[in-house]
Amino acid sequence: MEKAELIKDIAERTEGDIYLGVVGAVRTGKSTFIKRFMELLVLPNMDSESERRRAQDELPQSASGKTIMTTEPKFVPSRAAAVQAGGVLVNIRLVDCVGYVIPEAKGYEDEHGPRMIQTPWHEEPIPFHEAADIGTRKVIEEHSTIGVVITTDGSFGEIRRETYVEAEEKAIEGLKEVGKPFILIINTARPDHIGTAQLQQELSEKYDIPVLAMSVEAMTEANVLHVLQEALFEFPVHEVNVHLPSWIMALEESHWLRDRYNEMVKETVKDIKRLRDVNRVVDQFGGGEYIESAVLTGMDMGQGIAEINLNAPDGLYETIVNEIIGEPLRGKEHLLEIMQHYARIKEEYGQVEEAVKMVKQTGYGVAVPSLADMRLEEPEIIRHGSRYGVRMKAVAPSIHMIKVDVESEFSPIIGTEKQSEELVQYVMKDFEDDPLSIWESDIFGRNLSSIVRDGIQSKVSLMPDHARYKLKDTLEKIINEGSGGMIAILL
């Protein structure tokens, strides 16, 4: 990632204020890190010469040995430095915290006991170890947008690695409680050593944060940018847009495959908390029965928005098509036959679709004729008194639907009351779990559905043809001539 783009993205996430809180144990190189960071990234990019000189004078001092150098929190520079990068003006400031005490360090006690130091958060001096605890939390919560924890592998100086572990854990625990993005840097004299790489991997797994290994004293601009880039990936994700294949989006919302995709997306993206998590989650999507692969198509680091495209296996489309048409698709010619058949059905059904909805809702539905159905008769000149006019008459068929509840009754005589009760229990045994299963009940060698269907069919066919014609004629007269408010039906 380019330097200007990186700083621009971080500036967006921090609202233009890149404030680094540098925390950790004493004697790990926190002051050295701040000094090198300022020299490499901040001072060269400051426009004001006077501000640059002032910031230069405020750089912290560092030294080797066991004696503690930072005895009070310090803002570097005291006023945030305005830095121009890629057309974006950002304010950069670092905070040098009082380090967590380790047993082998010197300078946290004097002849009177624990050393008392002054902090910006208390009017009275407080013990050194208390200043480290309170200062770390205050700096990260109130004065920082990014946290940097410095630790060491013990490869420089006179203090062993084991001595730093407790203070390191305490610092990281405190930052996790605050919830702001932070990274861990192992300050080492041998950044390329295999043992350093192993420690880096071990700490990354232990704390679930990015861990960098470098010599802080020999830090380069590339190292500084790497620190910022890793910190950027620790910022939270605000939005994840997962795009399903377009043909799946064309399915009805209630379709089982759309439901399955929605479940998989919800289950997978719930693990995305940081920008760093996005790539890992994208890898989890692919290789399943319904998702062949997932591709990260875009990530706006500054806004915290990720775009993910899901790709379905090739055979899944054909499976769903077969399911929808109700038969296996045998080839292109078969598809054309089906499409033509469906087109004819759609054209026919389109005329009565609204009528079907009406009859289901109210018991009566009317399909209004289309312009193509209308027949215009020859105009006729008519006389009305001394005046003349023209009569134009159009005839069009309208389809009227009436919903009629047809009753079908089946009353087998089987013997005793007990036998009748047993038949009822047999028929109703699975009704609560599956109401439709009652129709599959076998009675006297036939299932109940076929018995009831035959009864309904026989009643429907009982209406004679002449009665149907009379009903049609009556309806035509009512529609065309009106009923005068009264309809009489003689049975």
From TrEMBL:
Reported EC number(s) for this entry are 3.6.1.-
Domain (Stage IV sporulation protein A ATPase) spans 1-236
Protein keywords = ATP-binding, Cytoplasm, Hydrolase, Nucleotide-binding, Sporulation
Q: Which reaction does it catalyse?
A: ATP + H2O = ADP + phosphate + H(+)
Q: Which residues form the Sporulation stage IV protein A C-terminal domain?
A: 416-491
Localization, per the record, is:
Cytoplasm
Q: Any one Gene Ontology biological process term?
A: sporulation resulting in formation of a cellular spore
Instruction: Give a GO cellular-component term.
Output: cytoplasm
Its biological purpose: ATPase. Has a role at an early stage in the morphogenesis of the spore coat.
Full protein name: Stage IV sporulation protein A
Please report the organism this UniProt entry assigns to the protein. Domibacillus antri
